[in-house]
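Input record, target 12 of the design panel.
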């Protein structure tokens, strides 16, 4: 048992939910072996969701998107769901949007149950390669394996696809025919569990190398006065990370479309096992499958705390973040305290960070 008291200092603090689990990994040198750059590795395919999509019986098919800001944007997530709906018009495609900007797999594994699994997805896309770019392969394995094992424990018939996006620091590796360190670490896990993967960036990197795409540039003018030169290179992004919806995200969708054909071919060859995906022995015994979000109970709080109303007529901040934080607490006075016990080695506060946020003192 570990006891952690938190004292809130003079600024007010908006809090969501407590999370706790297992240890952080030590940094791994940059010489981690890089995988050969391949757009799609089909591995075990996606036989369960394809069988449901191809039935044409009007069933509801739930597609979840767990990732960071690239997934949160109205880009490849929205485009791919529309594309799937057009490809399988008799089925009803339903989106589960579980993307939060600026977060990696180390938070994703804690919120997987709340944001994804309770909605019972048939297909789960996991996108964290860019935001995990600074994480060690050990930490990536712990978190991503936790997501996989949580998902297949909840429903072994949920198919998973790892998708890899790119940012400017990854471009040179990709043009040299190699994945980034983070994507390479995820590939090791994908091999272990037979999870298919799609890298969205190979076509982007190839076009940039030939001069037909500008990876980071000014957004083209819009509106009636705009007269784009059809011979001009495509602008992928304005910041070297987040693709423009009209260009970069469209290339991401096209990578999905090309890969989907391959996934259909390999999945048609697979015999559906009634038990679904098997949970083999873990790649890492210290995986994070036990990670979870825990509400702030009465016993944890002392001093001034207020539970915020997230309804339409309630607190604006609680309403804005109700999807990510269905329960939100605010410290109303300096010195308000949280105290809790847990089994494990890592705990944290799932909170909102901003100019009017609070400060925490841990003792």
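The sequence produced for target 12 reads:
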């Amino acid at each position: 048992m570990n006891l952690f008291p938190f004292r809130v200092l003079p600024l007010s603090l908006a809090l969501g939910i407590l999370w706790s689990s297992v240890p952080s990994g030590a940094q791994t040198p940059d010489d981690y072996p890089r995988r050969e750059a391949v757009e799609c590795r089909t591995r075990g395919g996606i036989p369960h969701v394809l069988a449901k999509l191809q039935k044409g019986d009007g069933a509801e098919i739930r597609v979840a998107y767990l990732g960071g800001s690239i997934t949160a944007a109205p880009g490849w997530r929205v485009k791919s769901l529309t594309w799937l709906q057009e490809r399988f018009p008799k089925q009803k495609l339903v989106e589960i949007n579980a993307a939060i900007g600026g977060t990696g797999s180390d938070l994703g594994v804690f919120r997987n149950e709340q944001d994804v699994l309770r909605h019972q997805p048939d297909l789960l896309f996991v996108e964290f390669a860019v935001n995990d770019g600074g994480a060690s392969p050990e930490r990536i394995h712990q978190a991503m394996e936790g997501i996989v094992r949580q998902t297949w424990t909840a429903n072994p018939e949920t198919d998973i696809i790892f998708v890899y996006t790119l940012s400017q620091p990854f471009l040179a590796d990709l043009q040299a025919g190699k994945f980034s360190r983070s994507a390479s670490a995820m590939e090791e896990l994908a091999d272990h569990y037979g999870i298919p993967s799609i890298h969205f960036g190979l076509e982007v990197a190839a076009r940039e190398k030939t001069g037909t795409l500008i990876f980071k540039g000014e957004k083209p003018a819009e509106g009636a006065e705009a007269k784009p030169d059809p011979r001009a290179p495509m602008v992928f992004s304005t910041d070297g990370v987040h693709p423009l919806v009209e260009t970069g995200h469209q290339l991401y969708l096209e990578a999905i479309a090309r890969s989907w054909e391959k996934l259909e071919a390999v999945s048609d060859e697979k015999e559906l096992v009634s038990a679904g995906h098997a949970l083999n022995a873990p790649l890492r015994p210290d995986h994070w499958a036990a990670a979870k979000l825990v509400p702030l109970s009465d016993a944890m709080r002392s001093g001034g705390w207020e539970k915020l109303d997230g309804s339409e007529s309630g607190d604006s901040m609680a309403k804005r973040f109700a999807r990510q934080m269905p329960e939100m607490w605010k410290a109303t006075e300096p010195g308000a305290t949280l105290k809790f016990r847990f089994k494990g080695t890592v705990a944290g506060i799932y909170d909102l960070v901003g100019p009017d946020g609070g400060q925490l003192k841990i003792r």
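The mean pLDDT is 89.
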